[in-house]
Design brief:
heterodimer, A: mainly beta, Methylamine Dehydrogenase, Chain H, five-stranded antiparallel beta sheet, four-stranded antiparallel beta sheet, about 0% helix, about 40% strand, B: alpha/beta, Rossmann fold, Hypothetical Protein Yjia, Chain: A,domain 2
Chain lengths: ~400, ~350
């Protein structure tokens, strides 16, 4: 069994979350009224919904709350908090099931999250919400289905929706956008499918909106590549540009993080197959100086193929640290932090964006009960203290680290 | 060396920073917390045969501060680390426990270190945090310094944190008198360790320490029973607080060692042009130049390091290490006295201003 490989990170603690250590893509910090720093984690799959961990002392994380999902045929892979409000995404396994949508919680008492409202997105062609972005306390930007949306292909069931939650007990949709051709009734033809086995849908994954450009949404559009939207009129989002590099690449564009001051866009793929079957899944550096013509200029060096390809489960890129526009989140327009499943957590310096240089890695030894025998580092968050939180997708739970580079 | 580079290559109107630097583009890339940035620290230990290098390194490995160290023994026919520590004398890596490993190099140092770096990334060897190189007794430290100076060498992955010179109190004085390499090892060192003082009389040790001080302004530590504070070996070198001029002592084979302190911030253009002149005219005689500079165009202090005609990429630090904000530059030269260098800096500054 491989040992922990660590370079320029310092491990502070590891918490397996009492046997429920499979964590998804929602990691959000709340500073509770009593000053405690609470990390809210979305679980990757049933039976757990979310877990709250007191990370005031990152060397001694403590579980303070945990909730079960109402149904086993669903997952809540994404969440975000703003102040004492938490939004949790609910996605069902099949279309037509419930509950599909998102739930808002009052987390002013972290031990006792109280439901405020449930925003229903269920419908005959809906699986609900896969991912949501909630940063300003006013709008949720999400990848969601809707009861009134019939896709031209069942895998294109989710699209971009903007929900006004200024009144958290009464969320209202204010705008939506989908890739032309993916909705029945569109005048454009449906997009050409990716080959069977690599056909993962023309739908958004991450939908990021930043205060530096409140009129822009940056979408990883899975098989559709990267999409930049003009949302200056939220009711009518318009496409500014789309960078589609598939084929020949395998699809599943996941996250787009703009480095605004430097006119760069960092774009990640998600690896979704095991043993390198969809290699190479990459983190791309894109020249964004001309917004209407994004140009890829480099990729971050992958963890060595010969070492990781057959180490078990997935090997390739997934989540990026997203420079969350929140007071308790770290900001950097030089360092990329990316997760690579069995390749662990990696940090790159993009000072020369033509040659991103790896400056740190953390590949923990496989957790004892890892079903694949491998670690599957899934997501990463960095708080303003520069404490790094990273999670395993299956059983490993939470690792806290310091950056030492 | 073929990869000769004059300092002026480090700033340019064109380059990634001109396209993607942003509003606050730093002159030398991302500001770093420390001179080595993300690179692995290397501590090179020089010293003559029998001076106690191995004992000193072994004592370090036994301490908690020395955990996770990779030791590379760069030896040429010399008896190296003994069998208890190193079970094979071929080109192999041996795990020592305590997260440490040992590598006996008979071939190429660069190849070995690259291999160690790759093995570490693969998880094939423990995640060592530093490398200690034990050099052969007769080694001139110059080439070791140069090896870490450029990207084409090992400068991308490794940073020479400290060059340690080990001098034993019994034979040190004799070696310094007879062997030019011994003087060079002492003159170029960041720190000097005197060993075997228990075997020499106190007066002789005192005279040796005085002699060492005349060759190099670096800190001198005295090992007790072959051991010294781990910090003395592992720390980043600190910059001098005072200017000094050790001149060209008798029998020093032309070695000069001196420090310059600049009260006011320097312009980068002036500094790089001064160094370009020195490098162009006297490159081979600039055995080592290292410093911490206040540069007008930079928020943080800039670490510079030259070895003959090769210069490390400058590194801008996020913070000054202390309240002293003056530029300090230490020179070890062959026959190039302080006065000439100081005058050149003054004259170029006058023209640049």
């Amino acid at each position: 069994m491989p040992e922990t490989a660590i370079w320029n990170f310092r491990q502070l603690a590891h918490h397996e979350l009492d046997g429920f250590g499979g964590i998804g893509e929602g990691m959000s910090i709340q500073i509770a009224k009593d000053g405690r720093r609470i990390l809210w984690l979305a679980h990757e799959s049933a039976p757990k919904n979310f877990t709250a961990v007191d990370v005031s002392d990152p060397r001694a994380p403590k579980i303070v709350a945990r909730a079960d999902l109402p149904q086993s045929h669903m997952r809540s892979n994404s969440l975000e908090t703003v102040g004492d409000i938490m939004a949790v995404a609910y996605q069902t396994k099949e279309q037509g099931l419930q509950p599909a949508g998102f739930e808002l919680f009052d987390i002013s008492v972290p031990e006792n999250p109280r439901s405020i409202t449930f925003f229903d997105c269920s419908g005959p062609h809906s699986r609900g919400v896969h991912q949501l972005w909630f940063a300003d306390g006013e709008y949720i930007h999400m990848s969601s289905s809707a009861p009134d949306f019939t896709p031209t292909h069942p895998r294109d069931d989710q699209f971009y929706r903007i929900i006004d939650v200024k009144n958290p007990s009464k969320p209202v949709e204010v705008g939506r956008w989908w890739l032309p051709g993916t909705r029945q009734g569109d005048s454009e033809p449906p997009p050409a499918r990716h080959p069977e086995g690599a056909d993962t849908g023309f739908r958004p994954h991450n939908t990021n909106v930043y205060p530096e450009r409140p009129d822009r949404a940056y979408l990883g559009y899975i098989d559709g590549g990267m999409v930049i939207l003009d949302i200056s009129d939220k009711a009518r989002p318009k496409m500014v540009s789309r960078w589609d590099y598939h084929p020949p690449y395998h699809g599943f564009t996941h996250t787009v993080v703009p480095f605004f001051d430097r006119n760069l866009l960092i774009v990640s793929d998600e690896c979704v197959r095991t043993e390198g079957a969809d290699w190479p899944k990459l983190v791309w550096v894109v020249d964004g100086r001309t917004e209407t013509n994004p140009v890829p200029i480099a990729t971050c060096p992958l963890p060595p193929l010969d070492t990781y390809q057959r180490r078990g489960a997935r090997y390739g890129a997934h989540n990026l640290y997203e420079n969350l526009p929140k007071p308790n989140a770290w900001k950097s327009d030089r360092i990329v932090l990316a997760t690579y499943f069995n390749g662990g957590l990696r940090a790159y310096d993009t000072t020369n964006p033509y040659q991103p240089a790896e400056v740190a890695y953390f590949v923990p030894a496989p957790p004892e009960r890892a079903p694949s025998g491998a670690i599957q580092i899934n997501d990463v968050f960095v708080d303003e203290r520069q404490v790094v939180y990273t999670v395993d997708r299956h059983v490993g739970g939470l690792y806290t680290l310091e950056m030492d580079f | 060396m073929s990869e000769a580079s004059i300092p002026s290559k480090w700033t340019s109107e064109t380059g990634p920073e001109s396209l993607f630097g942003g509003k606050d583009a730093p002159l030398f890339g991302r500001r770093q917390r420390r001179a080595r940035g993300p690179r692995l620290p290397v501590i090179a230990v020089t010293g003559f045969l029998g001076s106690g290098k191995t004992t000193l390194i072994r004592a370090l490995l036994d301490k908690p501060e020395g955990a996770n160290t990779a030791v590379v023994v760069n030896e040429y026919g010399e008896i190296g680390i003994d069998n208890a520590l190193l079970r094979s004398s071929s080109d192999v890596t041996v795990l020592l426990g305590n997260g440490c490993l040992c590598c006996n190099v008979r071939t190429d140092l660069q190849e070995t270190l690259r291999g160690l770096f790759a093995d570490r990334a693969r998880g094939a060897v423990p995640s060592f945090e530093r490398v200690v190189i034990e050099t052969s007794g007769l080694a001139d430290p110059g080439p070791v310094l140069q090896t870490f100076a450029t990207d084409r060498g090992l400068g991308r992955e490794f940073h020479l944190q400290a060059l340690i010179s080990v001098v034993d109190a019994v034979n040190g004085e004799g070696n310094l008198a007879r062997m030019p390499e011994a003087k060079k090892q002492v003159a170029l060192a960041d720190r000097i360790v005197v060993t075997k003082s228990d075997l020499a009389d106190t007066a002789a040790t005192g005279r040796l320490i005085e002699h060492l001080g005349a060759l190099n302004g670096a800190p001198v530590g005295v090992a007790v029973a072959g051991e010294i504070e781990p910090f003395f070996l592992l720390a980043e070198p600190s910059s001098p607080r005072h200017s000094f001029d050790l001149g060209e002592p008798e029998h020093s084979h032309g070695l000069c060692s001196f420090a310059l302190i600049f009260e006011k911030p320097l312009s980068w253009a002036g500094f790089e042009q001064t160094m370009a002149v020195l490098t162009a005219l006297r490159g081979p005689d600039l055995l080592r130049v290292k410093g911490l500079l206040a540069i007008e165009e930079c928020r943080g202090p800039v670490v510079v390091h030259f070895v003959q005609h090769v210069s490390h990429p400058p590194v801008e630090l996020e913070e000054w290490p202390d309240s002293d904000r003056r530029s300090r530059l230490v020179f070890v030269t062959r026959g190039l006295p302080r006065e000439s260098v100081a005058r050149l800096f003054t004259d170029v500054a006058a023209i640049t201003a």
